[in-house]
Design goal:
single chain; mainly beta; Jelly Rolls; TIM Barrel; eight-stranded antiparallel beta sheet; eight-stranded parallel beta sheet; 44 strands; globular; disordered N terminus; binds beta-D-galactopyranose
């Protein structure tokens, strides 16, 4: 158990009303029950997906208001939200009036839940939206020790401003206390890479005929190292010292190449398939993006430092490739900051970067010279989400610029396109992505196309058809358990839409130092939550875009990003996405089919205390004896018949791979 209790201040400081209550029939002692307002507890311990928890106000600081009804008392939060209270079996009841705060108009969709011990659902609201009348809840808590107030986002897009108005707890004895996570020790599970060579890059690579080819053979092991590639098709050449393969392939076709990496301790070999055709991005992209650390403070110098750090930290040797610039490389519409000012486009309509990015071609050359690739960001609307110049009515010219500058990835973010189309029809939602797809198709460069529109119109159902290599399925992630877990565990059901060249994207990683601006802080996820984050995103075959400042990674963060057996789950050539195969309250088992016939399986504990989690072979479609390997520890655990059970820490995971035993 890694929780500590936080006791409230003396009850006299509280919103307390006294009522005499005889609890135990037959006893002669009258008990004094007290009513505690939830908003007077230590609400700083509320986990939530956006903003800060507010006492007696909405999450944006307004008077609490649901369906036109105002409330003076209550908790204003934002889904996904979790507040865990220790009531020690001494509570009589909980009551509140819940709903989406009127500050979001008709938007938002949330479900409120009251959970008891072992996360038994004591009460659940219907899905509530902005403007709905408030729903009243009143639950008996007889015998309940731990009470959890949860708010789940319905569609998890945005505006999930959730109010627990007039929320109060009647205690028969004692006071309620609040659970908060104690600092967990950051235990590194990933073994140090062997000094012998090991090839870690993707086993398959898609390229279009005629497009510039760049692939780096990623390998760990002592340097110097020499690379060879047997069967490399005509048009490609390998730099034996760096492992960079460059050139162009003229004709479509499939090629099987044997890659070798040799150092003084030995030789590693891996079969590598090059598929020259229409499809690129055959496995999820591995890289970095500037948003979750620098946001509007990004500069070309910071981007170069990120590229240099991807090499010097050794991340490149584990297959990490993309260095992506998010918003704020463009000129801002009205910023007072001179580094964001300047001409927006030239006389021909070509976009001009802001003064922080004086030499785009120089920047991409710098990145490519290191064997890495690079990405850029825009919006189909007139302005990006941050208020910078975007691509509306300049799509072809912009795509040409990206190609000429040498970019390999485009994140295309809906943002102000809402001014052009309300986004309430499928053709309307698809149009801007079709337009940019057509523009990118005219560019002689392989540019991965990443849709960002937060999941509107069930984008997973049509993202591949419109030519997306990935599509965001959610609103923005942040470094809280409720945000990360809320998004990650909600991906179930999307698995049927993922495959080689087209993946669901539950947003970027929030491990390491993040901050969305000039000042950074260590992720607020506990170490076990970080293991859950990376394991789940690997199982989900999500693009993995590191969101931290890579020049400031500690050993723990690096260990999370350099476990080759874990990354192999993400990079498996079959391109399958995991699905939930079993759920028991807060315990979940997710499984993903791997190309070699094995299964990658995550045993997750979303609860607040360490618990045993079981993966039943029947839930995985398996029978008989199976060999089990712990992927984080890179250790065989033995052979198991029927099931595998393991103790999993609070908010943690055990990630295994399962093969039939010989
Ligand atoms: C958001 C997007 C973020 C980031 C930001 C830039 O809409 O979801 O990932 O790109 O815009 O302004």
């Amino acid at each position: 158990m890694i929780l500590k209790r936080i006791f409230p201040a003396a009850p006299c400081q509280w919103f307390v009303s006294l009522l005499a209550l005889s609890l135990f029939a037959g006893t002669t002692h009258a008990q004094t029950a007290r009513t505690y307002s939830i908003s007077a507890l230590d609400i700083s311990q509320v986990e939530q997906g956006w903003g800060e928890p507010q006492a007696n106000k909405s999450v944006e600081g307004h008077t609490l208001s649901i369906g036109g009804q105002a409330f003076t008392n209550g908790l204003g939060t934002h889904a996904a939200s979790e507040f865990i209270l220790d009531v020690g079996g001494r509570a009589a009841s909980f009551s509140a009036v819940v709903g989406v705060d009127d500050e979001v108009g008709k938007q938002g969709s949330v479900v409120f839940k009251v959970l008891g011990d072992t996360n038994q659902v004591l009460w659940e609201s219907k899905e509530l939206h902005g403007g709905d009348v408030p729903q009243a809840v009143s639950v008996s808590l007889a015998g309940v020790k731990q009470l959890t107030l949860l708010v789940d986002g319905g569609d998890n897009i945005d505006s999930d401003h959730a109010d627990w108005a007039e929320a109060q707890l009647v205690m028969t004895r004692g006071r309620p206390s609040v659970f908060s996570a104690l600092k967990e020790e950051a235990i590194i599970l990933t073994p140090k890479p062997s000094p012998k060579p090991r090839i870690n890059s993707a086993k398959v690579f898609g390229v279009r005929p005629g497009a510039p080819f760049l692939f780096t053979i990623a390998a760990t092991g002592d340097r110097p190292m020499t690379f060879t590639a047997k069967g490399l098709p005509k048009g490609l050449k390998l730099d034996k010292k760096t492992g960079h393969i460059t050139g162009t392939l003229k004709k479509p076709g499939n090629y099987t190449v044997t890659l070798r990496a040799r150092n003084k301790l030995g030789t590693a070999e891996r079969e590598f398939k090059i598929i020259c055709g229409a499809q690129i991005g055959l496995v999820p992209a591995l890289g970095w993006n500037s948003w979750n650390c620098f946001a509007s403070a990004v500069t070309a110098e910071k981007v170069k430092s990120a590229a240099a750090a991807m090499v010097s930290s050794g991340l490149i040797n584990h297959g990490w490739t993309y260095i992506n610039v998010d918003d704020f490389w463009e000129v801002h519409r009205d910023s007072k900051d001179p580094t964001l000012q300047g001409p927006q486009r030239d006389a021909d309509g070509r976009i001009i970067p802001n003064p922080r990015f004086p030499d785009m071609k120089g920047l991409t050359d710098y990145i490519h010279a290191r064997g890495l690739k690079t990405g850029l960001y825009s919006s189909p609307g007139p302005w990006t989400c941050g208020g910078c110049v975007a691509s509306w009515q300049h799509e072809e010219l912009d795509a040409q610029s990206y190609g000429q500058w040498g970019f390999d990835y485009l994140k295309y973010d809906w943002c102000s396109y809402g001014q052009i189309d309300r986004g309430d029809t499928l053709p309307g939602l698809q149009k801007p992505y079709r337009v940019m797809r057509a523009a990118l198709d005219k560019v002689n460069r392989d540019i991965l196309f990443s849709f960002c529109q937060y999941g509107m119109g069930n984008v997973w159902e049509w993202g591949a058809e419109i030519g997306g290599n990935s599509w965001r399925t959610t609103g923005d992630i942040n470094d809280s358990w409720s945000s990360m877990a809320g998004i990650g565990f909600r991906q179930n059901g999307h698995e049927k839409y993922a495959g080689p060249g087209h993946f669901n994207d539950p947003d970027m990683l929030v491990v390491g130092k993040v901050g969305w601006g000039p000042s950074l802080h260590p992720t607020r996820l506990t170490p076990n939550e970080q293991y859950t984050h990376i394991s789940l995103w690997c199982l989900l075959a999500s693009p993995l875009l590191i969101g931290c400042d890579m020049t400031q990674m500690d050993d723990f963060t690096l260990s999370l990003l350099t476990n080759d057996e874990v990354l192999e789950v993400n990079q498996d050539p079959l391109g399958r996405q995991a699905a939930r195969v079993a759920q028991n309250g807060q315990l979940e088992v997710w499984a993903k089919d791997m190309e070699d016939g094995s299964k990658a399986v995550g045993l997750f504990n979303r609860g607040y205390s360490e618990t045993s989690v079981t993966a039943n072979w029947s839930d995985l479609g398996l029978a008989g004896k199976q060999k089990v390997r712990d992927l984080w520890r890179q250790k065989d655990l033995g052979e198991f018949t029927g099931s595998f059970a393991v103790s999993v820490p609070r908010h943690g995971v055990v990630l295994i791979r399962v093969w039939p035993a010989k």
